[in-house]
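User:
Note these tokens:
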Amino acid sequence: MKKVALFALILVFFYSCGSSNDRGELVGVKSKRKWFAEKPFGMVYIKGGSFTMGKQDEDPLGAMNAPTRTVTVQPFYMDETEITNSEYKQFVYWVRDSIVRTKLAYQAEFASVDPVDGAKPTGIQLYAFASKDTVGESPYEKYMRENYYEVGQGLDSIKPLNWEEEIIWNKEDFPDADYVEVMDSLFLNKDEALNGIPTFNTKLLNYRYYWFDNEEAARTGGNRKAFLRDKVLNVYPDTTVWIKDFNYSYNDPMHQEYFAHKAFEDYPVVGVDWFQARAFCHWRTKNKNAYQRSKKNLGLVPSFRLPTEAEWEYAARGGLDYAKYPWGGPSTTSDRGCFLANFKPVRGDYAADGALYTVEAMSYNPNGFGLYNMAGNVSEWTHTAYNQMSYYMGSTMNPNVENIKNRRKIVRGGSWKDVAYFLEVGSRDWEYADTSRSYIGFRTVQDYLGTKKQ
């Protein structure tokens, strides 16, 4: 019966698309609302165009993996800075709060009692799954609620969470024993916590995301379901990279405080591997579109993603073709002798440029596109897999040689611990996708839909 009702609803939808006002003329199908490209917060518009990609100067390493060629990239938006600790922490906190609210909601179901007429919920019941007001709902909304939002058992259920009630973190204010039981399961045991301070178990911070493998589907065809992918991964940065990356070196302050302390909020996040960077992009899209849906009259935005290698190099050049560095070149210092990026200028002398480790993401002068630290500070993940022959194989239009089985991913821009060679806009480097480093971060991009004439 439900299937018949849904089919009838679909028929009504299709037959209602016509209009008697078109007088039988070809007028096209127009959207009810006009599309306006909105520049995402914290991003800059990169107008797109053609440029000479690759090494245009000497290649002292003899890598021979970036010969010059002319390519063209489409317009896009790019973060003006690397993703900061503060911005990545918003993602981590969202995952944390989702886990807490899910566990509280299931505990509320387990501990549910028959409510007294007219009595307001208290204690753990305040965090029960969000109930939908079914008065006045459409047949479609009823169908979706009964067949999707109220199905499933345990963690497989997709019932809507209650985001209205504030989570109580102070143990002295926990409302009842059921709330205490849930929160106790989320924190480290006393014998694991340092100095007895309650510490959230970061191993629980797992995020699951889905995507559709467009390229594989286009190449091979077949059942759509065969190209749906998903991944579950822990999103907390690996803070131990400050120790593991450098043998016989004292970096404990960075290990303990870099991601946790507010002094480093505006510094680029590190210790994030390629998969975690992709998960952040997925969450950022999900978070923005959740807001867009809540307003009903706003359209969904294109997905945030990692830049391709070509997009990254085009953006790094800042409109300067044949430039060695984002500021032009050929020197890493200004005419006053001031360093123009955060890197290792002299062997063993990391602090010659004014910083031992990273600096705030909005440091030094931006390039011609308004982007900060496209050279130095931290290297940046790109979407592109590393292949020594990429420049020979790739298209000249939006080139991107991608292979899902190739775990070597391109990183660009050089970092605080690199010599000047890796700061050059044409220099290529790579790292394994599941590896995190104290000198690799990322920034995101978003496609610009349509064409903006200059």
Notes: The first helix runs from residue 2 to 15.
